[in-house]
Design goal:
The structure is a single chain. With about 100 residues, the chain is mostly beta strands. It has one domain (about 5-65, about 95-104). It has no helices and 10 strands. The N and C termini lie close together (about 10 Å).
């Protein structure tokens, strides 16, 4: 299989074997293997299979490389003429995956 389009975390991702993918945090420990069964399309060229909406029995296997936090995003709130200033920060938890196999 050359590539697959999977649905993970409410988004579609085009992946191939060996690709590294960053998603919102998954409840999987580092070094574990996870499987995605919502495969929207897979193949290449003439052999491309497109699901309606998913391909039955197709899976994509990935290994968790690391769990980490994204860079900090600063939220700064101001109300004019009131002297109101509020500064907050947020770091979104993320999971980095490496695609190991595409099974159609």
């Amino acid at each position: 299989m050359a590539y697959a389009i999977i649905k993970a975390g409410g988004r579609s991702h085009k992946v191939a074997v060996g690709d590294k993918l960053t998603l919102d945090s998954l409840d999987v420990a580092e070094g574990d293997v996870t499987t995605f069964d919502q495969v929207l399309a897979c193949g290449e060229g003439e052999s491309l299979q497109v699901g309606t909406p998913t391909i039955a029995g197709a899976t994509v296997t990935a290994k968790v490389v690391k769990n980490f936090k994204a860079p900090k995003v600063i939220i700064f709130q101001v109300k004019r003429r009131k002297g109101y200033h509020k500064r907050k920060g947020h770091r979104q938890p993320k999971t980095e995956l490496e695609i190991t196999a595409i099974n159609a």
